[in-house]
Here is the input.
Amino acid sequence: MFNIREDFNCCKTVSCRNFGINKSDDYIYKSKRLGYLAVECKACGSHPPWVNNQIIENILKEKLAFHFSRKISHCTHCYQYFFFNEKNEAQLHGFTAAGTQRLKCKNCQRVYSVGKHKNIDAIKQVLQTVIDKLDTSAAIKKTGLSARLYYFYLDKLSLLLTNFSRLKEQEILQRDYIALQTEGKVLHLDHKRGFYTLFTAEADSGYILLQTSNVTQQKLTKQDTYHSTENTVIKDGCSSNVENEINQRYQQTMQRKHFEKLLVGELKPINRCNLINPARLSYVHFSMLRAFIYKTERYRHYIELESSIRAAALMSAYPEIKTEKAEIYYYLPFADSKETLINKKAGWWGDRWSSFESGAYSAITKKLQSNPPFDLRDTEYLNRYFTYLEGSLNKGLNSMNTLANFSEIHRVLFNFCETNKGKSPAMQFALAEKPYTAQELLEEAIRFNQYVPKKD
Ligand SMILES: [Zn+2]
Ligand SMILES: [Zn+2]
Here is the structure.
């Protein structure tokens, strides 16, 4: 249906002749030479850690179902996923016995029905409890709904807002060029629970396109389960200059058992869930990002200086790196750097770093005839969203669905309602003309999702 990589066991050294190639004769599969399971590439000497492809596929399915296929309008048969399939036109086709409008898809000719959004007042009340940051029991009491109905309308609210945002995004993501920006964060909940999460924004506007968490209901092997208490994440800006900071991060990576062993401190999973290793989430997250780039002519990805993110970014962009349509950059924000780096070599891969006004960057992929030249306008976009989410998310959450629903509601509210210098990310991204209040946004989403075909 759409091209997402299925086999991640290959060489990940960009300059190696085996880069991205599966089943090369140069490989020793499941090599244990360095003390962990790896693919040994005899051509470049690298040992990328072994990836359990099946687990990636299972989690990808789980996350795709939540992030891209929860549609409430349009054809259920041929328009399965946002972005990956084309939106269909339809014509009126009578009513069901229960009085629901039926529609006939002009694309696949099949008949489907779309329900009306009932009890909008209850949805509005639930939204108000989200804005007021009430904990769940207070929220249920305030709305006067039963717990079951509260969760039912919370789900409706999340559906309305995500459908609104995805349909809007889909209209605009037909550009020939897009730049994305990705960082990983840790979000702590009550009782030492928490999760690792990856955020991706459109890099020119700061509009948050995708957030995934390492919470899953899939069965995991011991190797893929996150259960560390150790924290090896370097705090920002401890060094006196940017070059030291870069070197320190590479050194820290070298001290890991392997490059993708990212440890983020103690995190307990929420009820009836598992936590996958952050590096495994990266593969899932970047596979899903193909939704936003597979139609563009060229794209660029700015990622934080983190090996596990690097590997996933390279794998996801492999077809376009090969045809020189994609570029991947590391970036490292650094305030008031007193020195200027020009093509300075650092780290195991010999990455070359240069300064820009708010830090330093390094081209991970081959240097192309860069057009536009490296241009990361704001390194704080994802931090701003993280601060917002940390301040808004209900820390008592203890179910995967509720957590996912809350996260999506906040993603959309942040994009359309939160402003920086008078503009919301959605305005910067040309998806909206004004900042919305949350209630205005909900009304707009309800109108937008009520698909009425043109009479012909
Ligand atoms: Zn190699
Ligand atoms: Zn159809």
